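Residues determine shape. Next comes a sample protein:
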Amino acid sequence: MRTWLPLVVVVLLISAGLWFSESPPQQLLGKQPTPQQQKGAADLVIRDAKTRHFNQEGTLAYRVDADQITFFQFERRDRADLTEPRILFYQEHEPKWRTESRRGVAHNNGERVVLHGDVLITELPKPGGIKLNTQSITIKPREEFAETDKVVTITAGPNSTTGRGLRAFLKEDRVEILSDVKSSYETE
């Protein structure tokens, strides 16, 4: 019997520790969350999320992958917070544009996605495509359109262009820099 006693004590201590770490402080003190706190709580959390979106013809238009998606449903709108989001746009069944960033927020069932933190948009296939770098960009995935008012750097091999503000029409492979444009080109 004495050999089981230390094991039982260890299991009880681990169980109590897990219960305390997983229980919110309000629950431990017997307090109920206010209606305001309940409205601000996440409705759904998905880890290692992978979603696919198809166009009206039924072909894959784009996919969104993220380390985590935290979904909130409010009375008039919804929001999804994205951790390490990656969006891959397809053209004619082939991947064409890839976006990645540290975090993002999707609004209204993904109609508008705002990416923040080291945003990188890459034209595929690698190598040879252009790369766009900025700190924040708004993407409308269904329209394959992106825009920002932040500083953007576009590189293609040794050539680079920097400017403030950008509109990218991904379907048309067209990018417009809006102001303060500076370019550096290498000749062969």
Observations:
- The first strand starts at residue 44 and ends at 54.
